[in-house]
Write a structure and sequence with these properties.
Shape: globular
Radius of gyration: 24 Å
Number of helices: 18
Helix content: 25-40%
Distance between the termini: 52 Å
Low-confidence stretches: 1-52, 232-237
Strand content: 5-15%
Structural class: alpha+beta
Largest sheet: 5 strands, mixed
Amino acid sequence: MNQRSGMKKMFIGFALLAAMLMQACSSGNNAGGNSSPEATKAPEGSAAPAATEAAEDLKPYEVSITYFATPERDVALVEDKLNEYFKEKINATVKLNPIASSEYKQKTELMMNSAEKMDLVFTASWLDFFSNTTKGAFLELNDLLDQYGQGIKEQLNPMYLEAPRMNGKLYAIPTNKEITQARALSFRKDIVDKYDIPLDTIKTKADLEPWLKVIKENEPDIIPNYNAGGGSDGVRYESDGRFLPIGPTPGSLAMFFFNPTQDKIEIIDALNPEIVKINNDANELARKWFELGYTNSDAATAKTLVLELRREGKTWYQETSWKPGTDIEMSNTTNNEYEFVSNVLNEPYVTTDLTTGSMFAISRTSKDPARAMMVLNAMHTDPYVVNLLVQGIEDVHYKKTGENRIEPIADSGYGASGLFWVLGNQMINYLKPGQPDDYYTNWIKFNNEAKRSPLLGFVFNDSNVKNEIAQMTAIATEYKLITTGAVADPVKLLEERNKKLQNAGIEKIRAEIQSQVDAWLAAKN
């Protein structure tokens, strides 16, 4: 109870600060920006009661939290504990609504389109956040954040709040986690040690080739190079650290790029000779490995996730998005049966895609957006709330092993969904076995030292080229198996694909992107 009492004082402190800010803030915080869509204005009468009122003087309100997670058996127990807590603080209860990943996008789109009452909604660039914002699904948050989210602003790296904007106005609050990621190749340490593999010599995927041969000849239970179904676009820009994709990318395809080190931002597309060469080299290598038997024979149709094979000890390396602690997380997914070590291949940049990869918005159908922001503020500042949502209930779903450490209880009914990257503030999660004391301190350092993309905050408006993007998406899907190595003559197929992209209007899309980038940069200066 002492921890909860301390959190109550902190929560009330934020509420008192919010009351003062309400007098100082006005709706003119975004002078100079275009007005937001009419549908995204907060409903009349939705402002929160004065923050200095006692909880019992506030009208009861249920804040729904719709989020991306596999429903677990004890969600209702966690919900009850949260309700005890929030009822005491702000006379609110919460309704937890986890939706499985396979159904999340479809179900939430239906809920938004039917104007179903919602409050906090998990969203992301890869869940069409920007298009849903344009359609008026989410409320503008500038004033709500100033009034009821001061804790969020204190906790969150300011770069996070630059990206989820339209016309300069904020429409979502990112989860406080890693702000960027590096590309890496991650390896099982026992295999590296067994064959004395010199990781410092492996700078690209091509450098793996002699070791794929060693694995094939000596480890019959391991797939040397696992591939499952190819990518959605078949563009292998990752092979060359000179290029970044613009993001969020049209049609969620990596077809348009720029060199972040150049003074002038020049957008190039998948037909650019340098990009074509990168693709051809990568696809020919993939074909060679397939023919040599390094790649699984069902690469074109395989659906098994690499995570499942890693748990079974059937893989020895994989391409990863790296941050401090990635090796520990990978080990945890195998119940710490295997250790991992990573070779980081590039310098990470903070991009719009990465900063908007996990967020919460407030639905335009919320009946009390201020109360929703109060709950979201607690999800970013209150260790009791965050760990209850992510880890569950002490002595039911985990055991405390230290002031900030826990040991999960196996098959407890909660905590297996991996909600740490979805909900609130990962930096105040309890540490689990294998995570060092400086686990999150290293993340903060990693975030603070990451390079800012020159296009951080840029969002492409595709309204002028929707037909061309639809055609481009269909063509990319048609040829996605090129990257698996499972189809013959990849150079010829890529040439065939690129001709179709040219006829579909990829150059028109590129020109539109360039025009918008130029205008966006000019407006910033």
